[in-house]
Amino acid sequence: MTAGRWAELVSAWETSGQSSRAFADKHGVSESSLRWWKGEPSRRARREPGAGKSRRGIVALAKVVREGEAAPASMAPTPSVVIAVGTARILVGEDFDARLLRAVVHALGEPS
């Protein structure tokens, strides 16, 4: 299976609310492989030259808009996709950072 397919499975597992064992059984993969692939993006990031530094001097930030507040006009253009995690809405544009999006979705999905 490709790294991309594993990334999709890990993302689906993280948002499913299922245990690693239940999710792995349902999708016909080993639980240990699923857990290993969950950690692979951070291992790859640590191996890359300049790990921990922003690319091209760009730092990814997220604007938080609380429920009931109007989103600022600076949040344009219109998002390509809107992702709902509980009561939170994530507006995703064309040039989104996939790693940051996964981290945000994961953080929003964790029980407090």
Description of the structure:
There is one protein chain. With 112 residues, this protein is mainly alpha-helical. The protein has 2 domains: 1-52; 54-112, no CATH class. The chain has helices spanning 3-16, 20-27, 31-47, 98-109; strands spanning 81-85, 88-92. It has a two-stranded antiparallel sheet with strand order 1-2. Helix 1 (3-16) packs across helix 3 (31-47). The model has no long low-confidence stretch (mean pLDDT 76).
Name the structural class.
mainly alpha
How many helical stretches?
4
Q: Please give the order of strands in the largest beta sheet.
A: 1-2
**Please, how many domains?**
2
Oligomer: single chain
Determine the N-to-C terminus distance. 34 Å
What's the order of the H and E elements?
A: HHHEEH
Per DSSP E runs of 2 or more residues, the count of β-strands stands at: 2
Strand content: 5-15%
Low-confidence parts: none
Question: What's the overall average pLDDT, rounded?
Answer: 76
Q: What brief labels describe this structure?
A:
single chain, 112 residues, two-stranded antiparallel ribbon, 2 strands
Present the secondary structure layout.
Blueprint: H1 3-16, H2 20-27, H3 31-47, E1 81-85, E2 88-92, H4 98-109
Antiparallel strand pairs: 1-2
Brief overview, please?
This protein is mostly helical and 112 residues long. Helix content is 46%, strand content 9%.
